[in-house]
Predict the structure.
Amino acid sequence: MNREDFSAFVARMLEDVIQLAEKECGKELSRRIAFRWLDSSHSIVSENIVEHIVERVFVDEEHVFPCVDIGVGDLLEDGTLLIVGIVAGYPPRRFGRNWQGGEGHSFTLWERLL
């Protein structure tokens, strides 16, 4: 998978994360988002979020980190959704079906009820 296609995949995953949180909490949520990695002391990113994620997860067309847990972590004071993620410890490999049979590696969607 090339970088452009992977970026589109990540953008869809971010929307899926929000839709899952909406389903779980029973209300419509903002599409204004911020992002932060949980695996170290990273700061919150509020611009170019897709590219920020792609930079960390996409190595090259043959190697992508295969498991990223990602979900809505909080609702900031200004109404922005804070999406958080962590890259699991698996080595990069070719993009493919995940363990659940879905598209892409295992971008696990989880949420905190708001």
In short: The radius of gyration is 14 Å. The first strand starts at residue 33 and ends at 37.
